[in-house]
Amino acid sequence: MTEPGAMAPDFTLPRDGGEEVTLSALRPKAVVLYFYPRDDTPGCTKEAIGFTEAAAEFEAAGAVVLGVSKDTVAKHEKFRDKHDLGVALLSDAEGTVCEDYGTWVEKNMYGRKSMGIERATFLIAGDGTISRIWRKVKVAGHVEDVLEAVRAL
């Protein structure tokens, strides 16, 4: 499991638009890495729109925002276009990054257990260490909390 103070597991993933993103190549910028269950669901849409609306503030504070789910790049592009999103959406189709960050978990919905992505956010400092972790994120107020933490780095 990842924890504050540890080095963030490095990765290279495809993103919407056809490019690849390598976490370590973003240094010395801070990175807000948020994991979300699925494109175009109510909570995930609100979260992505919230990060998009605050994108300029994150950039001014020296941070890059990256969203990660197991959806395909094509699905990410439809989601991005439908909601005019301005944050990079990375496709972890194999789930290896979700596993590395401990966000692929057993969920219990209405008594039915299944595996899925836990909504979680990791703030990674410019040196590649994990500065802060939010698990079981509630969307309301989350973007503001993360922005405050980025500014405090």
Mind explaining what this structure looks like?
The protein is of the alpha/beta class and 153 residues long. It has a single domain (12-152), classed as Glutaredoxin. 29% of the residues lie in helices and 29% in strands. The chain has five helices and nine strands, in the order βββααβαβαββββα. The chain has a five-stranded mixed beta sheet with strand order 5-4-3-8-9. A two-stranded antiparallel sheet has the order 1-2. A two-stranded antiparallel ribbon has the order 6-7. A hairpin with a 5-residue loop joins strand 1 and strand 2 (20-22). The longest helix has 12 residues, at 42-53. The relative contact order is 0.24.
CATH architecture: 3-Layer(aba) Sandwich
Number of helices: 5
- The gyration radius over C-alpha positions equals 14 Å
Count of the domains: 1
Structural class: alpha/beta
Helix-strand sequence? EEEHHEHEHEEEEH
Which residues sit in consecutive blocks of at least 5 with pLDDT less than 50?
none
| Global geometry | globular
Keywords: Antioxidant, Disulfide bond, Oxidoreductase, Peroxidase, Redox-active center
Pfam families: AhpC-TSA (PF00578)
Catalytic activity: a hydroperoxide + [thioredoxin]-dithiol = an alcohol + [thioredoxin]-disulfide + H2O
Domain Thioredoxin: 2-153
